[in-house]
C-alpha cells in the first residue's frame, strides 16, 4: 500500500490519481500508524513552507515522517514536499523545516525576463546515477510550478539539476529517501516513469 500524507497542502488528488493509474493501492491519510505501515510513502504539496510545517506539527506528523525515513521506507517528497525535508526556507524566516537533509530553500531571482513563479517545462541534467531517474534520458523535460528552489547542503544528495536563472537542485536521492521539485504526476510519460521507478523499489 502507498500512503500519501494528507496535511491540507493541496495537489494530493493528482498524485493519488497517478499512483492509482499505475495500478497501486493508495491511501490518503494523516494517521501515523497507517503511514508507518505503508510500503511506500509520498509527501506531496503546494503552498507556503511555514504554513505547511505548522500543519505537520498540528497533526503530529513531523516525528512520523522522521521515523519513516529512519525505518528506510521508500519515501518521495514532491514540490513543497521536497522543500520541507530541508532545514529552512527564505519564504518563512525563522521556521525550521524537517531538517532530514542539509540545505536551504531560496527564492528564485527575478530579472532577465524570467517570470517568478516559474511555471512550465524545464530540462534536467543528472550529476549522478539515480534509481529514481533510471531509464530517463538526460535532457528530459518535466513540469515545474515554484517560486523557491533548493540549494542542497550536500552535493552528493543531488540526483538532478535544472537552470532557471540559477542552478536549481531539482531532485535528491539518499538511500530510500527521494524528492523532486518538479511534479512527476504532471510530467506526462517521463513523470510516470519516475513514479513507476519509485513504486517499484
What does this structure look like?
Helices cover 25% and strands 29% of the residues. The chain is an alpha/beta fold and 201 residues long. The strands form three sheets. The protein has a seven-stranded mixed β-sheet with strand order 2-1-3-4-12-11-10. Strands 5-6-9 form a three-stranded mixed β-sheet, with no helix packed on it. It has a two-stranded antiparallel sheet with strand order 7-8. The protein starts with a strand and ends with a helix.
Detail the topology: elements first, then pairings.
Elements: E1 2-5, H1 12-21, E2 26-29, H2 32-36, E3 40-43, H3 49-58, H4 62-70, E4 75-78, H5 80-83, E5 88-89, E6 103-107, E7 118-123, E8 141-146, E9 148-152, E10 158-163, E11 167-174, E12 177-180, H6 188-199
Parallel strand pairs: 1-2, 1-3, 3-4, 4-12, 5-6
Antiparallel strand pairs: 6-9, 7-8, 10-11, 11-12
- Strand percentage lies at 25-35%
Order of helices and strands: EHEHEHHEHEEEEEEEEH
Count of spatially separate domains: 1
Specify the CATH architecture: 3-Layer(aba) Sandwich
Structural class, judged by helices and strands?
alpha/beta
Main beta sheet strand tally, sense and closure: 7 strands, mixed
- Helix content class: 10-25%
Q: Indicate the mean pLDDT.
A: 97
CATH topology: Rossmann fold
Amino acid at each position: 500500500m502507498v500512503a500519501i500524507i494528507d496535511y491540507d497542502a493541496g495537489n494530493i488528488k493528482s498524485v493519488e490519481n497517478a499512483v492509482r493509474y499505475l495500478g497501486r493501492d493508495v491511501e490518503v491519510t494523516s494517521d501515523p500508524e497507517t503511514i508507518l505501515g505503508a510500503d511506500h510513502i509520498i509527501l506531496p504539496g503546494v503552498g507556503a513552507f511555514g504554513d505547511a510545517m505548522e500543519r505537520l506539527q498540528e497533526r503530529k506528523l513531523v516525528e512520523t515522517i522522521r521515523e519513516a525515513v529512519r525505518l528506510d521506507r521508500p519515501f518521495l517528497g514532491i514540490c513543497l514536499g521536497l522543500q520541507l525535508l530541508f532545514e529552512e526556507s527564505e519564504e518563512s524566516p525563522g521556521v525550521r523545516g524537517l531538517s532530514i537533509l542539509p540545505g536551504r530553500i531560496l527564492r528564485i531571482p527575478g530579472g532577465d525576463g524570467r517570470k517568478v513563479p516559474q511555471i512550465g517545462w524545464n530540462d534536467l541534467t543528472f550529476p549522478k546515477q539515480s534509481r529514481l531517474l533510471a531509464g530517463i534520458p538526460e535532457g528530459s523535460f518535466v513540469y515545474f510550478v515554484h517560486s523557491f528552489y533548493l540549494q542542497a547542503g550536500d552535493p552528493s544528495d543531488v540526483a538532478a539539476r535544472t537552470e532557471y536563472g540559477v542552478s536549481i537542485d531539482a531532485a535528491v536521492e539518499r538511500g530510500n529517501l527521494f524528492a523532486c521539485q518538479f511534479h512527476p504526476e504532471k510530467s506526462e510519460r517521463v513523470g510516470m516513469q519516475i513514479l513507476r521507478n519509485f513504486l517499484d523499489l
